[in-house]
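HUMAN:
Sorry, I am quite new to this. Are you able to go through these amino acid letters and fold codes? The numbers rather puzzle me.
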Amino acid sequence: MKELELKYGCNPNQKPSRIFMENDRELPITVLSGRPGYINLLDALNGWQLVKELKEATGLPAATSFKHVSPAGAAVGLPMDEVLRKIYWVDDLGELSPLACAYARARGADRMSSFGDFISLSDVCDVDTARLIKREVSDGVIAPGYEPEALEILKTKKNGNYNVIQIDPDYEPEALERKQVFGVVFEQGHNNLKIDKTLLEHIVTKEKELPEDAARDLLISLIVLKYTQSNSVCFAKGGQAIGIGAGQQSRVHCTRLAGSKADNWYLRQAPQVLNLPFIDGIRRADRDNAIDLYIGEDYMDVLAEGRWERIFKEKPPVFTKEEKRAWLDGLTDVALGSDAFFPFGDNIDRAYKSGVKYVAQPGGSVRDDQVIETCDQYGMVMAFTGIRLFHH
């Protein structure tokens, strides 16, 4: 198939809409179920590139949860402890396959942003992963293949309208890529930059020790950034992104956004949150929203208004600012990647509050010395990669 007609473009008024191949080439994808839209396919094709690179860089199955052309989460298939299983809402399931673990982690890092996501999987979708996907609110999935039973499970989702796409894992794009903006054609070389450990060799801080796990997490953050709308910053820990700040004009706002998401990820693991007395039968999305509200600054207003009765069996105690800060002090050894240089040390100051110990960024700012000095004050390890990862 060389062309696929779409329902409409980014918005319903943008018709006609299609994807197609030039030079008489076949599309690298096959739609097995559903009717994917314009944004679905942007998410699918960007997400596939991301998980393919994560698999190549780490040797582990990988998954990403995409929303509006940026990842909400990404992870490799490492086992989860009981706390992670609980905050990702998979503690009711048995032992999960590595691929299912990857998706549970990718979805779980920022569940609110992942609501209605498009999923990309590096490996053939197995039954564990399909069962996990079936019960989440999602628009579709792309993978290099599907086990027969897994495909049947996915085909029942959304009354048979769930988007299931198979991609040729051997497909390689042409060297030049093009797009139009306002009738003007843009052309550039495809970004085939390989991200590997050689990018982490130029360590510029006094502290030089970079453990294997930290190097893995830095690579994950850089690969995530390669497919995140810029400006962007990514926090990673334990084989997954835990906070992504995308599409901000100011880099410190990227760092604040990513840091706040990383904080929320860790606060969800606090006993005050794990023991919340939810009413019976509450849906996962409603629990996610309630937890975000409970962690946030406005929870006292909810208590005063009495809305807690719609969520909880009994009024939970306030999670005070002091208690949250004390818990966050236990978040350590976080890796941080940035798609371009840090212009000021304030990014490092903010990163430190969210447990960042390891940093990878291009370098090249006139204030590099200031940024290095700030890292040294906190005992951080920072590598200058020498490469920028803008994506638009």
User: Anything to note?
Assistant: Residues 3-172 form a domain with the Cytidine Deaminase; domain 2 fold (CATH 3.40.140.20). The chain has three domains: 3-172, 194-267+330-384, 275-318. The first strand starts at residue 3 and ends at 5.
